[in-house]
Amino acid sequence: MIQKLLGFLFLFVLSPLCTGLLWRGRLGKKREWIWDFYLPGFLTQLAVFQVIAVPVMIFDAHGMELLVILSCAAFGILALAGLGRACFAAKKERESVLAAPSSYPAALKETGWEERIFWLIAAAAVLFQLYMAYTRASFDGDDAYYVVQSVLADQTGVLNRIRPYTGLSTDLDIRHALAALPLWEALVARLTGIHAAIVAHTLLPLVLIPLTYFAYGKIGAKLFGAKGWKLPAFLILVSILQIFGNTSIYTNATFFLMRTWQGKSIMANLILLVLIWLLLEILDETAKGGKTGLWVLVALTNVAAAMMTSMGAFLAALFLGIASLVAAVRQKRPSLLGKTVVCCIPNAVFLAMLLIMG
Fold first, then answer.
1. CA distances from 24 to 86, 314, 324 (A)
2. What is the 3-state secondary structure (H, E, C) of 232-261?
3. What tens digit of pLDDT does each residue of 46-71 get?
4. Three-state SS across 71-128?
5. For 136-259, where are the alpha helices, taking DSSP H only?
6. How far apart are CA 264 and CA 43, in angstroms?
7. What local confidence, expressed as pLDDT, does residue 103 receive?
8. What are all long-range contacts of 220-225, with beta carbons under 8 Å and residues at least 24 apart?
9. Do residues 232 and 118 lie in contact, with contact meaning Cβ atoms separated by under 8 Å?
10. Which of 29-33, 115-119, 171-175, 304-308 has the weakest average pLDDT?
């Protein structure tokens, strides 16, 4: 029980939150809350894990122990760096690490009762989805491959060299192996002591579903404003579409709530949403400063996209290319295209590896 608690706190609370402090003041926001640091920190750690996991997997067939050591060391260093930067900034600016002490209470006082009702309904809808995802975990045919890869990596220490369907040894399947999400799930299982299948079906939805709605909230705040009833109403509408969206096995809602742990689901429901949010922040002509940090986070999100599925790098680059082209023409900012190309270098490297090694 202690291992489960400590492993969860390290991987999903302290480490990503402290890593997110590296982004403090670099995303163009004047007022930052504690939850503003979690998503950038989480994505940063996913990107770092992908960079570590791919070479370890290629050069060391029995490299699970090495992967755990390197990943934990990298996460710890990032977290300590974030804490150090935040403490130095707080001392220099003579303010709280996260926000001014009176900011949050003042924001609550400014909230009307109608808006609070909308927020309560939105929170209840998300909690309902978490409850159903936790208590009604469903089996999917892809579990026989992806979840088994996580189980094999955790229990045998072998990285993608055992065929999940038969248990026989095989060559490295580059098409699937370069998307290292199953190895990350094996890392979660190893550090928490929870079986990898339980991690996938039970633990990850409790993390990924709220994180996805946080990304929706970021988009809604840019479109409708952070104050007023429109943002919670937007989240309520999204929740309704997700809850009643199981009209076929291929809908976004089906993947979101019933296949939450799969890379293709995370790619469509989280990574693309983050890219939309970052583009909205970058293209906001009224915002000043923080653009460089946003572009760096775009590049790291592209690395995380490659971690989810072999098509993730291509789809992320395609989306960014089309969106930046339209924005460059509309806003008469050709520099957007050059910056997008630089941010898509990780995508090109991943796709080149896929073609050469495949």
1. 7, 30, 25
2. HHHHHHHHHHHHCCCCCCCCHHHHHHHCCC
3. 999 999 999 999 999 899 999 999 99
4. HHHHHHHHHHHHHHHHHHHHHHHCCCCCCCCCHHHHHHHCCCHHHHHHHHHHHHHHHH
5. 146-156, 174-177, 181-192, 196-198, 204-224, 230-243, 252-258
6. 16
7. 47
8. 222/277, 222/280, 222/281, 222/284, 223/280
9. yes
10. 29-33
Give the separation between CA 29 and CA 26, rounded to whole angstroms: 8
Q: Record the tokens describing residue 268, joined without a space.
A: 């469509």
Q: CA torsion 152→155→156→160, rounded to 10°?
A: 30
| Ramachandran area for residue 299 (φ above 0: left; ψ -120 to 50: alpha; else beta) | alpha
Cα torsion 256, 261, 265, 267 to 10°: value is: 130
Which two three-digit tokens encode residue 25? 């003041």
Are 321 and 344 in contact by the 8 Å Cβ rule? The answer is yes
**Domain locations in the chain as residue ranges:** 2-94+112-357
Residue 46 tokens, joined: 């996913």
Angle at 127 between CA 124 and CA 130, to 5 degrees: 155
* pTM, full prediction: 0.91
| Kind plus residue range of the DSSP H or E element containing 266 | helix 263-266
- For residue 28, give the DSSP letter: S
- How far is residue 45 from each of residues 36, 69, 196, 309, measured CA to CA in Å? 15, 14, 19, 17
Tell me which residue has tokens 């996805």: 212
